[in-house]
Amino acid sequence: MSQHDAVYNIPLRYRKIENLHIVFWLFKDVAWCMVWKPLGILMIIPTMFIAILIAWRTRQFVSELFHNLAIAFWITANSYWMISEFLHFDTMVVIGAITYKHIALLPFAVGILLLTYYYIFYKEQQLSK
Length: 129
Hints:
By secondary structure, this protein is mainly alpha-helical. It has four helices and two strands; from the N terminus they run αααββα. The chain has one domain. A two-stranded antiparallel sheet has the order 1-2. A hairpin with a 2-residue loop joins β1 and β2. It is flat and about 50 Å long. The chain starts with 11 loop residues before the first helix and ends with a helix. Keywords: Membrane, Transmembrane, Transmembrane helix.
């Protein structure tokens, strides 16, 4: 079996926590959409905890680790953005045309950089071996 034919099996206990993660994430985003501030802010905790747990559990698989870390940074950015809107500091100016909402671009960028590194450098190196 070549590396391209390799199979990654997710243990059932991991799959259950991943599915629960989706439930928490959806509750967080629905609360954001409906402006249910306490629920939205509360849902950050289990959503982030499980995102980090999933990344930790998949750390031995570089592809899974990079993608799960990108998801954790996405949730971080998303959560910060939600809080900035809930607490009404999203449109306050930091400097020039940059508002506090734009700070969410930092964790988004980290996630993009992780995946860029993985696809352009790491994966290409593995394919050339």
